[in-house]
Amino acid sequence: MTREIALAEVEGLVGTEIGVSDWILVNQTMIDTFATATDDHQFIHVDPERAAAESPFGGTIAHGFLTLSLLSTMNYKALPKIREQTMGINYGFEKVRFMSPVKCGARIRGRFKLSSARFRGAGMLMTAYEVSIEIEGERKPALTAVWETIVQFDPKDRPVHD
């Protein structure tokens, strides 16, 4: 179960790995559903026979953006909950690099290192995470990124600094 921390504890975690998600199986149903949602039906993703015959991967691979989108579920399951948080906002990415393809049938998981945390205004905390998505049994990650988020909270809950 994901732990809970106080807002005042966040800054002290900068520079540490604060979460690793469970493994997620990327199967053909997931890939096909994403292809339908994004209208990206390139054969390398949706045609197992053709992908096996015409690609170097031996079958279909997940869309890079599917892999990236799974960071949301990895985040919810791996990172500590901040007690005072009223809302979380995805601010964006500084850098995303797709390092290795995720083959259909592979399992992936996310690693989250808090690289910065700074208060902005009365009720916001800007955070940045160095994230990587590992592929089980592979040396290189599927992707690496710097992910920025905003933690919103009631200004009365802002920690007092000396």
From TrEMBL:
<feature type="domain" description="MaoC-like">
    <location>
        <begin position="13"/>
        <end position="118"/>
    </location>
</feature>
<dbReference type="Pfam" id="PF01575">
    <property type="entry name" value="MaoC_dehydratas"/>
</dbReference>
<dbReference type="InterPro" id="IPR002539">
    <property type="entry name" value="MaoC-like_dom"/>
</dbReference>
<dbReference type="InterPro" id="IPR029069">
    <property type="entry name" value="HotDog_dom_sf"/>
</dbReference>
<protein>
    <submittedName>
        <fullName>MaoC family dehydratase</fullName>
    </submittedName>
</protein>
<dbReference type="InterPro" id="IPR039375">
    <property type="entry name" value="NodN-like"/>
</dbReference>
